[in-house]
Amino acid sequence: MWKDNIPWSREIKNNMKMEFLNWFEELSSLKNLFVSRCFSHAISGQHGISIHTFCDASQFANAAAVFIRIEYADIHVNPLAAKLRVPPVTTTNIPRLELLAATVGARACTSVIRAHQRYQVVERLIMTEHKKNSHARLQMLLNVLREHYWILNARKTVRSVLSKCVICLRHAKRNVTTPSASLPENRIKDFAVFEITGFGLAGTLYLKGGSKEWICIYTCAVFRAVHFELFLSLTTEAFLQSFRRFIARRGRPSIVYCDNGGNFIGASNYFKSVNWPEIAQFSSMRRMQWLFNPPTASWRGGFWERLVGVIKHILRRVLGKAFLPYEEMITVLCNTESIINSREYIHASEKDSERIHLSHNSFWQDFRQIGVPDLDQVDEVVLN
Ligand SMILES: [Zn+2]
Q: How far is the CA of 42 from the centre of ligand 1 (A)?
């Protein structure tokens, strides 16, 4: 009808009408057709089961049928699924139609297999075996099941069933959560800024001309203020020079936390060779206490590593891919230091704009202004 372009409203011709009426009469005989829908023998898995797919094509139609074959006392063959399609009007090539039918067959077969996997009885069987074998885990359960049954896509199916066992879920491991340890006393007491200091290396930079330099970060463990130094070489001598500069500008720390870096340990050993009783006789200088992080506990340096993240965040944006000369790099670093030290301790809400917020600078800088717009302007004029 469709090929002959017959509209819906027109009555069809005699031979076509007869064909349709015959087909319509045959429909009543469908009630005598019986298709078994229960395959409990197959589900018990104790018998040879195989799934067979047939497909064929002609110029009138392509079809596929999926059958199950069960060996149980006798051989039982039952249809499971069938598909029928009218071929496309434009395709007259038989091999092409055969290929289409094969595709239809493969799809029908896949859907049957999936339905089988979803079958609740299989799930119940797996769960029963799981409980029978003292809540056996995946691999053991697979082995036990394979002795008697063949489950399609077994690993995936068994895993999904196991995930529903309430008892196993209850005993499943949980992430270990430990309450975080309280901070050491010397980090919460009232000390002078930088009296308790932590330091580590914050990373490397390349200067104009290709020379390499290292940034060292000194952090106050109590007020979290920072101080940066540049090393041109990673040696104990270079570290001691920077440490001298730090003490000269920020004061002498009483406790120094640091990483396990070789040059730091070298510096500590230098200090060990100092005759402290002799020095103590002539000055009131206190001996500095050096606390090294154990080699496998770098997390203990978290309080300066966090600030290393902050400085990297700023430098990446300020420097980009630029290589600066040493002097300019020092300026950028001091600027960064000033920005980090001026950050506020608490979130400044818009509502309490009247209040003065505490920053790290508040503890040792009387002039709270940072930034040099006047110098920037001079720079601009010079560059122009
Ligand atoms: Zn279980």
A: 25
Higher local confidence (pLDDT), 383 or 320: 320
Question: Ligand 1 mean position to 122 CA, how many Å?
Answer: 16
- Share in percent of the chain as helix, strand, coil (round to 5): 45, 20, 35
Average pLDDT score, the chain: 80
52, β-bridge pairs: 67
Å from CA of 115 to ligand 1 middle: 24
pLDDT by residue (tens digit) across 185-219? Answer: 877 888 888 888 887 878 888 888 888 888 888 98
pLDDT at residue 379 above 60? Answer: yes
Distance 163 CA to ligand 1 centre (A): 8
> Residue 343 to residues 19, 26, 139, 171, 363: CA-CA distances in angstroms?
89, 88, 56, 47, 12
CA of 124 to the centre of ligand 1 (A): 13
* Cα–ligand 1 centroid distance for 173 (angstroms): 13
Instruction: Please give the residue that has the higher pLDDT: either 328 or 89.
Output: 328
Higher-confidence position of 89 and 369: 89
What is the C-alpha to C-alpha distance for residues 238 and 297, in angstroms, rounded to an integer?
25
C-alpha of residue 132 to centroid of ligand 1, in Å: 10
Portion of the chain with pLDDT greater than 90, in percent: 7
| 116 CA → ligand 1 middle, Å | 23
Radius of gyration of the chain (CA): 41
Cα-to-centroid distance, 168 and ligand 1 (Å): 4
Give the pLDDT score at 65. 93
Q: From ligand 1's centre to the CA of 162, what distance in Å?
A: 6
Q: Which CATH class is domain 193-344?
A: alpha beta
